Amino acid sequence: MLPVVVVHGGAGHIPKERSERSTEGVCSAARAGYIILQGGGSSMDAVVGAVTELENNPNFNAGCGSVLNVKGDVEMDAIVMDGKSLGSGAVSAVRNIANPIQLARLVMDKTSHVCLTAEGAGQFARSMGVPEVPQESLITEYSRMRWKKNLEPEANPVEFQMGKMGTVGAVAVDSEGNVACATSTGGILNKMEGRVGDTPCVGCGGYADNSSGAVSTTGHGEAIMKVILARLILFHMEQGQSVEAASDLGLAYMKSRVDGLGGVVTVDPQGHWAARFSSGQMAWAAAQKDTLHYGLYTGEHFTQSTEMLLID
Amino acid sequence: MAERFSPDQNREDQKKDLKMSAVVVVHGGAWAIPDELAKASVDGVKVAACEGFSVLKRGGSALDAVEAAVRAMEDNIVFNAGHGAVLNADGEMELDAIIMDGRTLGSGAVSSVKNIANPVTLARAVMEKTAHVMLTSRGANLFAESIGTVTVPTDTLVTEYERKEWEKRKNYVTGVMEDFNAQWVHDTVGAVAVDCAGNVASATSTGGIRNKMVGRVGDSPIIGSGGYADNLSGAVSCTGHGESILKVTLARLILSHVEQGRSVADSSQLSLQYMADRVRGAGGAIVVSPSGQWAATFTTDRMAWAAVDQDVLWYGLDPKERFKEQFSQ
């Protein structure tokens, strides 16, 4: 059963012309994470590796390809958590760096703090020698087009939001049974400057605990925060629920209590995994026992040998 | 309205008219409070609890009560929130706060905001006037400006005491792992309440830890860690070693025990013990249930706390201490 890695590329409505690229992206990220695990890397290495790849992929709302805030700027949030120590690192509203997930890991590894925000996070990045990148390098034509369109008076921001509300994330269990999670996002389109969503909040955007499992979430951030979705799912697992049942219970509760939609990837320390969502779609992929699993629409589950993928 | 909450009234009557007993509980931070601050801290939490309870007696909501109680402590220079908060590594003040409404699970928070006298009120505005839950740093300040919140110069928020303490400590390497009970760590304020309608709310506000890195966000503004409120289980406000509280999502953890049928006191005790065992963190929590059960619990040397329940003011500072006075406005 071990090791295993599961990734998501965000829950929401993915336009058809972009769906194939989303699927390819998550498959490739899962493969990258799995290679790290097979090479003896830790689950933390694997989730950071997988999410780094999704941040670098312009098709996802994280790192390059992040949505723009109301002023047309990119402000990103990310979190990592290590299930062995419950150690966690997060950054919120950080600018001008390519890989917020790696900065979140530095916060965990190099400071006595858990979360650094805004300019303070930027200062820390510079002190760690993380290269500063021009904002332009994080902005795609697509994200700028959507930002402009949403500023038009007749725009319906809520409807438009659904076009791409997703965050990226990963969970993994390594061969020693350690679990980890990582989540990264550009947030929501046309958000206020300084808006922080669920992603960098421990228990909301993700949680990892070797005694129960790991979860990375995506979807309507404010709803996820209200129910502390990742932690809620793990409470259910502590009560004996399976990864799948616990994920569904958490998502159903979020829908009924605060009318929020979203998706999650979940693992337990034994290597059981689930990719569940209440939104119409979520691009996801998992790699386990040399098999790659992936899907996009509800009920979809394709498999492929990873050996074949390792060659291409 | 006072007679409605008299202790002699039998429970059946309360059920009949669906009036529950209103309760407010506040804390002024869990840490090794030095003797010279002890009296001022206890006096401060008593005033804040009475302030919150007066709001409830006038028919105010739990949300109004926790905001009023926390504002009283933000305005009191003895506490590390608002006026009197600690300084970061650059000698600046960055404030965090959260408020949560147990009726809707609605929440508002600000992190790393500057030059605001009452961050808890700004947090409430985030909840009520934006589609977001949390605003950080400059964005939070821009929002404050846009709704007409008065910006105050840093100097008016910094006390002479804090400036001196900061000077003394600035030689320490920032970001080193410190024993939490070291006296230079100075903590958070918070309040929880249940109103006559059975609605619960929580609020927490802090300056964080002295000499913290610029932009450090602790547990206080993080939903489920610094505070949580849910009419189905109760409301919690936490204090103590922020990074430990985050790792165990302390507020939500306590309520998960309540949901399993445990008392608010047992739930707090179990969760704080778990935090001590699992991540070696000390802290404190105040909890109130929708039926008016409450607890103030801590694993640090001291926590200044006070509660008003049925016109009786309870308060304490040292472990197992529980004094009682008649509530007066």
From TrEMBL, chain A:
Regions crossing the membrane: none
Record-marked site positions (Cleavage): 166-167
Recorded catalytic activity of this chain's protein: L-asparagine + H2O = L-aspartate + NH4(+); Cleavage of a beta-linked Asp residue from the N-terminus of a polypeptide
List of residues binding substrate: 195-198, 218-221
Any GO CC annotation of this UniProt entry: cytoplasm
Domain of life: Eukaryota
GO BP annotations listed: L-asparagine catabolic process via L-aspartate; proteolysis
One Pfam family of this chain: Asparaginase_2
Family statement drawn from the similarity comment of this UniProt entry: Belongs to the Ntn-hydrolase family.
Protein name according to UniProt: Isoaspartyl peptidase/L-asparaginase
Species the sequence originates in: Dicentrarchus labrax (European seabass)
Automatic annotation (TrEMBL), chain B:
Annotated Gene Ontology cellular component terms: cytoplasm
Cleavage (site feature) positions: 187-188
Keyword Thylakoid: no
Catalytic residues, chain numbering: 188
Gene Ontology biological-process annotations: L-asparagine catabolic process via L-aspartate; proteolysis
Binding of substrate, residues: 216-219, 239-242
Highest taxon listed in the record's lineage: Eukaryota
InterPro entries: ASRGL1_meta, Ntn_hydrolases_N, Peptidase_T2
EC number: 3.4.19.5, 3.5.1.1
GO molecular function terms noted in the UniProt entry: asparaginase activity; beta-aspartyl-peptidase activity
Catalytic activity: L-asparagine + H2O = L-aspartate + NH4(+); Cleavage of a beta-linked Asp residue from the N-terminus of a polypeptide
Keywords, comma-separated and alphabetical: Autocatalytic cleavage, Hydrolase, Protease
Keyword Hydrolase (UniProt): yes
Protein family (similarity comment): Belongs to the Ntn-hydrolase family.
Identification of the protein by name: Isoaspartyl peptidase/L-asparaginase
Annotated organism of origin: Dicentrarchus labrax (European seabass)
Name of the coding gene: si:dkey-103j14.5
